Amino acid sequence: MNTEIKNQWITALRSGDYQQGIYNLFNGESFCCLGVLCDLAVKAQVLSEPRKLYYPLEDVDKYYYDNVWDSLPESVRIWAGLEISDPKINVSGPLRISYLNDELGYNFEHLATLIEEQL
Known about the structure:
Layout: H1 3-14, H2 33-43, E1 51-55, E2 60-64, H3 74-80, E3 88-90, E4 94-96, H4 97-102, H5 108-118
């Protein structure tokens, strides 16, 4: 991963500026850990602001970055220097970072430490 972007991501996760959410990069109020990276890409003008679309199957609005709402868009993956759109972190075996955020409830501080050590 690009060291400068990695450091920005870690700092942003630890900043307290982002409310943590699950199952979406961004839901209009909160971000998953990958959504924080997308927000940094927006600020760096690598990515456009998220687009809100109604999702009738769940009767909710979803926010899309480059037509993606649940993993990193290709443009962000390339910008950040990541090999895959949902990087794996080794926690008693390789697990996708979105799984740690969404299913296991790792908070941003814990995720930042794992990113710092492993990506």
